[in-house]
Amino acid sequence: MGARTRTSGPGETPRTGARSPEGRPARDRAPGPPRSLRAPVATRSNALHAGAWWLWAAGLAVAASRTTNPLLLGLLVGVAGYVVAARRTDAPWARSYGAFVKLGLFVIAVRVVFSVALGSPIPGTHLLFTLPEVPMPDWADGIRLGGRVTGEQLLFALYDGAKLATLLICVGAANALANPARLLKSLPGALYEAGVAVVVAMTFAPNLVADVLRLRTARRLRGRSTGGLAAVARIALPVLEGALERSVAVAASMDARGYGRTAQVPPAVRRTTAVLTLGGLLGVCAGSYGLLAAEGAGYAVPLMAAGLAAAAGGLWLGGRRTVRTRYRPDRWGVRAWLVAGSGAAVALLMIRAAALDPAALHPGVVPPTVPQLPLWPALSVLIGLLPAFVAPLPPAPAGRAPYSPAPAGPEEPRK
Has residue 379 got a pLDDT over 90? Predict the structure, then answer.
């Protein structure tokens, strides 16, 4: 039998068999947003600037420092966790987010235990239990061990510990998303030496977690125990040995790249650089404290702006001493501005909400009240989800294509 042919009727588009760039017929292409609005797959050339992730996380941390409402703190943790799950890679530092979450839970437990053991200045009428009180000498007046434990006291300790835990989790989110090596490459020349030390310190914990997980998995596959003091002692030695080997490798690579070599500059320039840099960093520290503290919102912003200006001048002058070049420097593009701006928007809106309605952001402890979720602060926190949609997608692991959900097209007719 010969093949049957079908002519297109009026108003129909003839089937030409043209295919889309993805390899599917053009008529089966799934509808979606324009290609220019989609987040691309991250490559070496379009990867998001590492500083944008840290600015985003710093904005969430500032927002967390302005409230003790457990609902808002939980929402901040959820926003950070969603962005990490959507945009982290398979690198060793990207696996440290879970360790920071566990550290936050440990901080909450320690804060509650300290409140029970050492007491609290929070008055309360709901007595839970009484511990034996240890008498203290006169020079330790104001400190007590044991005594009455009230519900208001534990509630205040729980809220305070949750705030500290949220700050740690925000730092863990930045540590899991930002590439430390690319962050070091983006630092000014004047901070390169200090930046190396900071990056090594930042990567120590993620690499330590990765080594522990690798050794525990290897012991589990060999049928050996992974719990108990004996197993911990056998795992600790290879972990420390790996850390020493990495340190030696880093030192060798730094020496091969001419680390620490500087150019000659006049003494007056060196002194001016030191004064501007130290004064600017002190201003930034004081301004950061004002932003994190509830009382310093008035002087924090101008002090931080002056400190940033002085530090920028000092870093520009100090960069003249460093004789190094950057290979393919990271660009601060539109997506980096969106990611950093979302964190800054969350921080500014939360500061504004704390000034307008502080009672909504700090639930009552004496007497205890049920925390409510304020609408506008909650909506401002949700702005922090923007990086999950605009940041470049992490590359798929080797041997697996990236997954992009799309509705199924019409079925091909059977021949």
Answer: yes
Specify the pLDDT at position 3.
46
What Rg value do the Cα atoms of the chain yield, rounded?
28
Average pLDDT over residues 1-29: 44
Instruction: Give Cα separations from 91 to 138, 304, 395 (angstroms).
Output: 55, 34, 11
Say if 409 falls within a structural domain: no
Looking at the domain assignment, is residue 16 inside a domain?
Answer: no
Neighbour tally for 241: CB within 10 Å: 11
The answer to whether 160 and 121 have CB atoms below 8 angstroms apart is: no
Q: Are residues 72 and 214 in the same domain?
A: yes
| The pLDDT of residue 181 | 67
Query: Among candidates 412, 392, 398, which has minimal Cα distance to 43?
Result: 392
Please name the amino acid found at residue 156. F
3-class DSSP state for residue 86?
helix
Using alpha carbons, select from 226, 230, 202 the residue that is nearest to residue 214. Answer: 226
Give the DSSP letter of residue 26.
Answer: G
**Percent of the chain as helix, strand, coil, to the nearest 5:** 60, 5, 35
Distance CA 229, CA 232 (A): 5
What residues form DSSP beta bridges with 393? 41
* 367 preceded by a cis bond (ω within 30 of 0): yes
Residue 120 located in a structural domain: yes
Cα–chain center distance at 314: 28
**Residues β-bridged to residue 148:** 130
- Give the SS3 label for residue 41: strand
Q: Rounded to an integer, what distance in angstroms lies between the CA atom of residue 368 and that of residue 128?
A: 14
C-beta of residue 319 within 8 angstroms of C-beta of residue 189: yes
Residue 34 lies in a domain: no
Separation CA 275–CA 269 (nearest Å): 10
Question: Under a CB-based contact definition with an 8 Å cutoff, are residues 275 and 255 in contact?
Answer: no
Residue 169 to residue 164: CA distance in whole angstroms: 9
By residue range, what is the domain housing residue 284? 263-321
